[in-house]
Sequence to fold (231 residues):
Amino acid sequence: EIVLTQSPGTLSLSPGARATLSCRASQRVSSSSLAWYQQIPGQAPRLVLHGATSRAAGFPDRFSGSGSGTDFTLTISRLEPEDFAVYYCQQYGNSPPTFGPGTKLEI
Amino acid sequence: QVQMLQSGAEVKKPGASVKVSCKTSGYTFSDYGISWVRQAPGQGLEWMGWITAYNGNTNYAQNFRDRVTMTTDTSTSTAYMELRSLRSDDTAVYYCGRDLWFGDLFGRSPQEDWGQGTLVTVSS
Fold:
């Protein structure tokens, strides 16, 4: 199965700053089948991006994704207070789908 | 509006079984697959498997293949996940998630809509 590694484990930033989260796969992710989820403690995950770059409903253009192959990035420009959460990447192109360990974005 | 309503918290003893339900509404149940994902306390997300109500096809993660059964009831648009031979490390919040895309995708889709989660506690 594909193992995903996320870095950093924790990212401490201030509102208004730019956040760059990384996700690296142990092997090529087919068809850029890479998603990002946001999870606020006590809540279910929420889909942020899919296909590495396509924003899900409800997320503003401050959220953007890039990458292909084995290296992917989620960028959040101009952080808002509601953006501070844990972010997980997931590859769904190869079975079984797998998640990264998460990056905690904290103030 | 898509809604996914899961059953309530459960407390089970080691060796027992648990069956979690996920009642859906707001879309055609058989058009979209459902994945089950769990999260142990303070830990990350773990994909357990996937099912489609269209034809009952399933795709289970290797770690759960001999202990999990996923089913659907099209008459009530409800998906079920049963986990047997429970251990203390099965203590987790269990989520159902609906595929973003319709079709028989065997889990090869992100999840767009999620249930609220069901806490299963395994303790003697």
About this structure: Chain A has no helices and eleven strands. The first strand of chain A starts at residue 4 and ends at 7.
